[in-house]
# Entry
Amino acid sequence: MTSSDEPTLDVSHLDVDLDLPRSVEEMLFPDLYVGLEINLLSPGDGIVTDRHHASSDRYEADDPMNQIEGQISPFTLSGWLRHGCEQVLQAAGATACHPGEANADYMRANVYERDLDSGYHEKGTCLDDHDDGCVVYNVFGGFGDQPGKLLRRPMSFSPIRRNVDVLDGEAEAHYRQVSNQVRSRNDEDGGKPLRQADRDVLGNVEGTWKLTLREVKPEFVGLLLEAVSFLDAHSDEFAFQIGGARNFGAGIADAWLINPLYTEREVRRVFNRAQATTSAMEEKDEVWASECRPAFVRALQARVAARDEDVSIPDESESIVGGESA
Ligand SMILES: [Zn+2]
# Structure
């Protein structure tokens, strides 16, 4: 570990060199910004809004003037990201920590055993032979006294663009509470409503999810880069949509990791419709895609190979999951 005011990326524990054309001080670490564009989002665990709208005089669901701000749940977002990370580890030839306890009360029989046959190991057993757990264990943590190395904040939203600070992990989004009447299909009922279903949704989410690494290791960066690429490439697959209402097109996310070489001003520029990409940003995109990104991915591959004798570090390491470069 290094002192906190002089960031370096330590690869001494890995069997690779990390050749980066730019210094770590020129990168946004320990913060990482996931850019997100989601037309419709219905987080399974709901939305925390900034006002009490249980009383009907304070909230009209269909009032276009309502300007509700709030938070998108970090649990929904974290589960989505973790699923992507698990896929990356499996594609790299390793297994990932199962997200659940072996003795949890699952709704289907043998589900844990079946998962263990398809790319997972029992939660925490990756500590048996190594001091460090698998990389998913390190990043997400949450077992016993092991905090995850990645802080996943809630994402705040506002319908008013000037209130949105993407450097704080905020998004422009429009909150509505949507009510559905489920009506009887029996002729004799004359289409009477049987029940009402309310759900919280956000429309046109556009902004950032701010992640912070409590410990910046190159393999963590590689894992997150690959996971976000994977999730973007598979965004309309049921398993990789975010939140609920997936059959209705909710939770299909365009996602990308904002170039860590950008300055804070350039991160803001990405979401400013009045400003185009500068040539300096284009040059950084080229450097990131051709030299930095592959180096971080290679660090991840080295980390996987160090733990598993059946896995070697590939010669070509552009991408593990084959998504588009972030
Ligand atoms: Zn593990």
